[in-house]
Structure formats: C-alpha cells, structure tokens
Amino acid sequence: MALKDQIERRRTFAIISHPDAGKTTLTEKLLLYGGAIQSAGSVKGKASAKHAVSDWMDLEKQRGISITSSVMQFEYDGYCINILDTPGHQDFSEDTYRTLMAADSVVMVIDAAKGIEPQTRKLFKVTAMRNIPIFTFINKLDREARDPFELLDELEKEFGIGTYPMNWPIGCGVDFKGVFDRERRQILNFNQMHHGQEKIKPIECELTDTDKLDSLIGEYQRRELVDQIELLDGASFDFDLEKVRCGKLTPVFFGSALMNFGVEPFLESFLKMTTSPLPRATKEGNIEPTSENFSAFVFKIQANMNKAHRDRMTFMRICSGKFERDREYYHIQGGKTLRLSQPQQLMAEERQIVNEAYAGDIIGVFDPGIFSIGDTVCDTKNKVTFEGIPTFAPEHFALIEQKDTLKRKQFVKGVEQIAQEGAIQIFHEPNSGMERVIVGVVGVLQFEVLEYRLKNEYNVDIIRNNLSYQHIRWVKSPDIDMKSLNLTSDTRWVQDFKGNDLLIFTSEWNINWALDKNEGLILEDFSKE
Ligand code: G4P
Fold first, then answer.
1. Do 94 and 422 form a contact (C-beta atoms < 8 A)?
2. Which residues are within 8 A (CB) of 277 and not within 5 positions of it... i.e. 6 or more apart?
3. Ligand 1 probe mutation, 258, 260, 261, most atoms within 8 A of CB
4. Among 72, 77, 217, 424, which is 20 to 30 Å from 449 by CA?
5. Tell me: the pLDDT tens digits for 71-101?
C-alpha cells in the first residue's frame, strides 16, 4: 500500500475520563470490534483477574492498577486504529497529559449520572490547548441518568465548546429504550441488544410514524422523544465538520459501554469524522504526515519494564513518513545517528517487534538512557526539530532527603535521572543546590514510584515530607525582580533544574494575591521551555 494510503487510514486517539466513567469498558468494546481481544476482561481485570496491558512494574501489580499509559493498535473496516490509553485511576500522572500530545483526537467518556468530574476537567483543559477534535460518549444510560439537555448544557458552559448530539437517548435506567439516530432517523432499540460482536440492527423510523414508534418505545416515551428532537433540531448548534475538526464542536453520543449499546455506531461515525494524522509543528515549519521524511517525537519514557534489563523504554509518536527497522535515523538532541533498538508495538499483553510503522503509529524502543521527553528522531538528511512537550503544573509537593547521608551521590543521581525521564519534577530554592529537593507531581502515585525506584534501582531510602502547596506557576514576566516580589508568607520562590523561576502556592487565593500586588507579574500553569 502506498505511503499516503497507509497514513490516511490511521486514526490515533486517546480516551479520557474521570475514573469509573467507563473508559476501560469502552476501550475493551472497541478492541472487541477490532478483533484485537477475544473476551471482555482482557484489558483490565481489577484486583483478581488478568493484569492489564501496562502492568510492567511490580508496584503496579501490588496495587492492582495500571500506572502507565500504553498503546493498542487494531484494524477495523480498513482503518488502522491506535488507542492511546491513559491511566484510569485517581492517581493519574503527568504521563496522562503527555499522552494527549501524541493523539490526533480525543474521546471523552462521561458518566451520564455524574456529568463532568474533576479529572475530565483537567484532561479537557490540556486537550483544548491543542485544538484537536473531541468526541463525547455519554455512558451508562442503562442506569439512572441526568437530563440529557442538562448534560449538554454543562459541557457547553463549563468547557466553552459547542455540542452536537449525534443520537438522543430514549429514557434511561429501567426505562431505557434505546437511542434515536438524528441523521439516519433510525432507532437503535435497547431491547434488541446483544453482547459481543453482533450488530444490533437499527430500525428505520421517522418520528411521524406514530404507530411504529408506539410499538417500539410506548406512547409516553414517543411523545417525549418527538418533543425533545423538535427542541434539539430547533435550538442546538448546526453540525459543522470544520468546527469538529478544530475542537470547537463536540459530537455527542449516548450509550452504554457495559451493555455494548451504541458503541459500534459511535465507532463508525467517529472514524469518519475524526482526522487521519495531522501536520505537526517543527521549528522549521509544519511537517506533513505524508512527507517521505521520517520524523517522530518522544512523549513517554518508561523505566524498568523488564527487571532483567535496566534499560528504559522510550515511546515515540511517528509524525511523518515511514519507520523502517534497519534504517539509520538521527537523534537531534543527542546529535547522533542511531538505529532504534528492538522497535516494538504493544498489543494487550503482547509486544511485537515492528519492521515498519507509519505516521500516526507509536513505537517503543529500548533506550540506554539517551532520550528525554520531547526529543526528536528524524531522517538523517532532512532534519527537523519538534517543539518540545510542555511541562504541566504539578499539584502535589514534597520535600525529600536521603535517610543515609553517605548515599548522597546515589540520591542525587537517582533523583536527577528520574526527573530527566519526566517521572517527577524537581525544584530547589534559589542558591540551595540539591540540599533540599522539592519534588512536584501531578498524581501522588508518582511519589510512590519515586520511592520504589530509588530503593530498587539506586539502593537509596528516602524520607518524604509532604508539603501543603497545591499550585505552581511559571513566572513568565521577562524583567521581574524575584527578590522584591510582594507575596504571602506561605508562597515560595523555587527554580526548576533549567533555572526557570517559579512560585508555589497553597491556594488559588494566594495566586490572585500575587497577581494583584505585583504589577507586570505573568504566571502560567504550564511551561513550554
Ligand atoms: P474507568 O476505566 O473509566 O475507570 O471505568 P471502567 O470501565 O472500569 O468502569 C467502571 C465501572 O463502571 C465498572 O464497574 C464497569 O463495569 C461500570 N460500567 C462501565 N460502563 C458501564 C455502563 O455503560 N453501564 C453500567 N451500568 N456500568 C458501566 P465495577 O463494578 O466498578 O467494576 P467491574 O467489577 O464491573 O469491573
């Protein structure tokens, strides 16, 4: 198949949600359609069952959770689909944000009884930064749910995004009768639902066909549906694919992932509406995915996946061209030509060596410690450099020191290396060197990972004192004198290891106070440097 065709059939997306909204269940159903797994329960078995895709670290096994994000590739209807999985529990990490940098679109799963929840909010914010398409799957309609109009209203008001319901739920919970497909004017009837891969046959039904509707969903619900669709057709946003493609309008689907209801129509519409890999910005200008020149960037580094090897695994998103296993490529930041060692793609519990891969795909390579987050690997002749991945604001902070002062060297080395991988962020107070290391993380589980890795890989035990800071901001004012800032007594000035100035705060109130009292102070909650 020609390069262009290979790339155009690729769809690379991430699924985001608040824990328990149904992300894993939906992913699993999508994989079932792709024939990538044979049975439900293969993606995540909580405490008891089979372990998930990304259970490489002992720590993950102990906790019965999946810390790391992984990638699953499968074929469906001529498309080659890459799903970027994001950690699905409360303690998500900066990896989750970075994974969104590798996606071309995002599917947001929302629990119909709960609406927008905190983690959805955070992930949406990062997604919206990139203006990529966002699709919404409102899940769990087989249970009691909130009013669908209210849910749409919440999305529009909180996220400032237009919504376009592709289908409309007919009741919910015990009264759930199915969904009405607005475009095709069809009813997908919940009573006819099947599990597994079987298709539910939609029933064509105009809203004017009263008798048919009454026999399908009953008179009461028919009246309600007709009224609601009328309201929707009159009052909602018009469908505009251009707006969908730049993340200004989210197509909304209602369904039940658990019951496998509405998942297939969702997948089919989604694949048509979302984009194939998009051009990406480099310092030399945009690079087209179908360019003959290979390019990729590092968005995730995973240490210690295989205890027998000390190597790390580095994940790259291919942005243009074709990757070939035996070719030489150029690592911009290292300034070296290299062959990527044992390139792999991941599928559920299996890892496969890949001989070739295309723009849109993710490959993992063994890394002796040369790559950092955001690095570019490209063609040896036509070099490009991607604009790095932003550093996102940590929300939890701790002061750490080694228990045994004789192990100072290992401690510093370990902390610096783990930070360089992007597993934690480290800060220090100006002029204090590495005496007092402040560690910042997006999810508290990262602290545990740090402790575990320092002990297992560097043989260092640490004492950790959690700090009450909750917010960090990069100081972006070009000429501000940090020493003369007027700040509340519990606000602290720190620097990252690149020497950037930052402020850490215990509350939003203190941030506003700092902005109020210091003219010209510019603060940002992520950094692109
Ligand atoms: P997550 O990855 O977003 O954290 O959510 P996950 O898919 O694990 O789903 C969380 C819980 O919600 C699971 O139940 C799952 O079975 C249930 N669930 C997911 N989709 C639906 C749906 O459409 N309808 C209903 N009624 N439930 C749904 P659990 O009891 O916590 O876990 P499990 O023991 O079933 O694995």
1. yes
2. 7, 10, 12, 104, 289, 319, 359, 360
3. 258
4. 72
5. 788 889 999 999 987 765 655 778 889 999 9
